[in-house]
Amino acid sequence: MHYTGTLYRNPYEPPSPLLEITQGCTHNKCKFCNMYKDIQFKPSPIEWIEEDLQEIAQLYPETDRLQLIGADPFCLSFDRLNNICDLVNKYLPNVEVMTMAARITNIKNKTVEELKILKEKGMVEVNIGAESGDDWTLNRINKGYSSKDILTECEKLDKAGVDYWLTFLNGVAGVEHSHSHAVNSSKIFSSCNPIVVGTGGLTLFEGTTLLEEYKCGKFNPLDEKGLMIELKTFLENLDFEGRLITHHTSSMNLNNLNFSKNKDQILKSLQYGIDNYDMEYLSKIRENKLNL
User: Kindly report the CA angle at 29 between 27 and 34, in degrees rounded to 5?
Assistant: First the structure.
């Protein structure tokens, strides 16, 4: 297999073979991320992809799922992705589900009709690290798009019938803009139709711009209780029917298959954590995290 560098996969996906189709990140400027800092973006050569598919076909000939790996492999053009779909269907005819990570900007270069074609060939789901629906926050962390872009591009996915996840980055706005980040993100996410909303608590990793800004006094991060209060505000205002996933938040497990049905209990559990958890202990756990 032609794997380059550290591989990041969605741990909440069912186990499936990993097919790397891009290397690095097209944007690579988000202030909180250090995952691809030293990796130049490149599409994987089509020859590599075909060879890897041949190898997967030998090892897992009956697989019905694939994770397409890279920071945002959905950046590739429709023609390129269409070609990859044809190769997958050639070597792995049982594959019905291909998933991958995506940026909001990756969707802009594809029409609804093109998205429909990719879905028909198996690209049925993308995982979008939106991080926020608040324009101040999106600009502050250098995401490279606006809240309006999130609505516009997710509407295209809806029209094409492509499922998508949206991720909220708990704490990334800092103390001063925490409430606006939570409330405005919930409004934008509720206006979309994700099948999953994921939340992750900010950790200031080495090699990130936000850590350097914190050291210089230019970023005021939330403490553990502040993170949980912000998350509660986000969830209180969130309205959607799908699955909730929380990670890098606390030792509390709020994961739930039906957020709307179980919202009240989720909020009660979160309030219990706010009132009773050992925040110093949780802070030490976060300090020991080395990467996402």
Answer: 105
CA distance readout (Å), 151 to 141, 187, 217: 19, 11, 34
Q: Alpha helix (H) ranges present in 111-258?
A: 112-120, 135-140, 147-160, 178-191, 209-215, 224-237
What does pLDDT average to over the chain? 95
Which two structure tokens, joined as six digits, stand for 23?
Answer: 């290397």
CA 218 – CA 207 distance, rounded (Å): 16
Reported as a single tens digit per residue, the pLDDT across 192-205 is 999 999 999 999 99
- pTM for the model stands at 0.95
| CA atoms of 33 and 141, how far apart (whole Å) | 10
Sequence-separated (6 or more) residues with CB below 8 Å from residue 124: 96, 97, 98, 99, 162, 163
User: How many distinct helices (H) and strands (E) make up the chain?
Assistant: 11, 9
